[in-house]
Design goal:
Radius of gyration: 24 Å
Shape: elongated
Largest sheet: 4 strands, mixed
Helix content: 40-55%
Number of helices: 10
CATH superfamily of the largest domain: Spore Coat Polysaccharide Biosynthesis Protein SpsA, Chain A
Low-confidence stretches: none
Strand content: 5-15%
């Protein structure tokens, strides 16, 4: 796709990434703050295209799949297309480790249960976006959990999105990934929980209220039985604890209702920013 304008975001590379990229005619932008999320945040702020293609610079994704991904985005009037990784069986162990596959499936299924959607590879680093997607995306993540945030943003605004199977290969010999299986897996899981609380407050705080109320009722049952038998409240501290927990449950539910209205207002603001920019297929600039 020769019409692409290439930008390379150099995130403290210790090799000749910047020099080679400039020699090949790419625009190089240095990002001193470490982390992929920091790079994506800078990318979305500094680049203003109609269509943006984002790909990890590790030569693992099939480059020529970009044509199919961009065509799908334009023809089907989508706002995000994800390159779903597909690895040949004879190349699977070194290209896409089974532990990473299992973790990806676990995290992707968790997001599907909470936020809906039909993505099969939520953590893919090969994506195509419209301008209205990137200009309505308030990136907050710092590391590799940024892909989770990208996916949930599309699901929350109900943006039309799709996937294209993309061949995924092993990294070049002599290079190593910055991805830490356990550390970054934990950060991604923590991001999912955080976004669940932030974007589904009524569901989260209602669940908390239900658990607290259930516990309150459970510890109050013996107090009721004693009162029915003797006419006295012999477990007075337990009765106070139960009443206090029930008040906490009501407060939790109230917090959920209030925060749900706040979230709706925030989503409406992002939706208006999204709708203010036309889709490239509609004849916009």
């Amino acid at each position: 796709m020769p019409e692409l304008e290439i930008y390379v975001f150099d995130n403290r590379s210790q090799d000749q990434t910047a020099a080679v990229a400039r020699a090949e005619g790419a625009t190089v932008i240095s990002v001193d703050t470490p982390g992929k999320g920091s790079v994506v945040r800078r990318m979305f702020a500094d680049v203003d295209p109609d269509i943006l293609v984002m790909v990890d610079g590790d030569a693992t994704y099939l480059a020529r799949a970009v044509t199919q991904m961009v065509d799908k985005l334009i023809d089907e009037r989508l706002d995000m297309v994800v390159g779903s990784r597909s690895t040949p069986k004879d190349n699977m162990p070194e290209a896409y480790r089974r532990g990473h596959q299992f973790g990806n499936q676990l995290l992707t299924s968790s997001v599907k249960r909470i936020f809906g959607g039909a993505f099969s590879d939520m953590l893919s680093g090969y994506r195509v976006f419209t301008r209205r997607y990137i200009k309505s995306f308030p990136a907050t993540s710092q590391g590799f959990e940024i892909e989770t945030e990208l996916t949930i943003h599309a699901l929350e605004l109900r943006m039309p999105s799709g996937e294209v199977p993309v061949e995924y290969g092993a990294r070049p010999v002599g290079t190593e990934s910055k991805l830490s299986t356990y550390r970054d897996g934990w950060r991604i899981l923590r991001t999912i929980v955080h976004l669940y609380i932030a974007e589904r407050p009524l569901s989260f705080y209602s669940l908390c209220a239900l658990l607290i109320a259930g516990t309150s009722i459970g510890i109050f049952v013996p107090v009721i039985f004693d009162y029915m038998e003797t006419g006295l409240v012999e477990r007075f501290p337990t009765a106070i604890l139960s009443a206090s927990m029930m008040i906490c449950a009501l407060l939790s539910l109230a917090c959920g209702l209030i925060l749900d209205n706040v979230v709706r207002g925030r989503q409406e603001a992002k939706r208006m920013a999204y709708l203010a920019i036309p889709h490239p297929a509609s004849g916009g600039n």
